[in-house]
Design brief:
Distance between the termini: 13 Å
Mean pLDDT: 76
Low-confidence stretches: 1-6, 34-38, 75-87, 247-254
Strand order of the largest sheet: 1-2-3
Number of strands: 3
Shape: elongated
Order of helices and strands: EEHHHHHHHE
Helix content: 55-70%
Strand content: under 5%
Number of helices: 7
Largest sheet: 3 strands, antiparallel
């Protein structure tokens, strides 16, 4: 309750009463409503639902290929290797296919991240504009890189079976072109990855979640990104439980 006016104040995010001070003691929000319930509850809930879905899909993209890859490695490959070939073509094709499938799954995850950032943009937070655009671009970039990698493997296998006589093997020029395109697309993807990481960090700040901040740090570290996604999933589920359904009522900045 506001002691100066005798009016009860409620958190705009979780709906709990703010007895005093400028911050909600439950979730750290900086705005309050004069009506019990979360004035931005529906937007917050949709944003975190999409964030949670995206995190779960990214876990699938990061872990789903592991059993197939191990089976391929220890089982001699799901695709037969060409005889008398120094490069295990079957194994290379399997890796390329796994990369493509993982890229497609990750693109779906990025779609839900973009939806989450867009929901938060509707609250007037312009800080999610760049992350939203970055996630949309990564949908295309990820799938494109997957197909380019598959094409590169095909050309490399073709060149590996070429018997040297004179001149460059067929497809060498195409391989160089694909490598150049991969480099350019990769740079764009790297910039967009930074944009998505910024968005994820800002989500952690928006909901006062140290778990999301830790997840962002782990996502940057190779081989630990899946742990980061798991932390995102746990944190988003926890935040969802704390958000009260929206009710009509005036919203005032503390």
């Amino acid at each position: 309750m506001d002691n100066s006016t005798g009016t009860k104040r409620y958190c705009h995010r979780c709906g709990n009463e703010i007895p005093q001070g400028d911050f909600c003691p439950s979730c750290g929000a900086k705005q309050f409503s004069l009506t019990k319930g979360s004035s931005w509850g529906n937007v917050d809930r949709e944003a975190m639902k999409n964030f949670r879905i995206a995190s779960a899909i990214m876990i699938l993209a990061q872990l789903g290929a592991v059993p197939i890859l191990l089976s391929s490695f220890f089982g001699g490959g799901l695709v037969p290797t060409t005889a008398n070939n120094l490069i295990p073509t079957g194994f290379l094709y399997e890796i390329a296919t796994i990369v493509l499938i993982a890229a497609i799954i990750a693109a779906i995850g990025m779609y839900f991240y973009s939806k989450s950032f867009k929901e938060l943009m509707e609250k007037g937070n312009g800080g999610f504009s760049f992350p939203h655009t970055s996630a949309l671009i990564l949908i295309v970039v990820g799938v494109l890189l997957g197909f380019l990698y598959l094409a590169l493997i095909s050309i490399m296998v073709s060149i590996s079976t070429f018997t040297p006589t004179s001149g460059l093997p067929p497809g060498f020029g195409t391989m160089i072109t694909i490598l150049g395109v991969i480099a350019i697309v990769g740079i764009i993807g790297f910039i967009c990855e930074i944009g998505v990481l910024i968005g994820q960090w800002r989500v952690g700040s928006e909901y006062n979640s140290d778990l999301i901040h830790i997840g962002v740090i782990l996502t940057i570290i190779p081989f630990l990104s899946v742990i980061g996604s798991i932390l995102f999933l746990i944190a988003s589920s926890t935040i969802l439980k704390s958000i009260a359904p929206a009710e009509e009522g005036p919203l005032s900045s503390v």
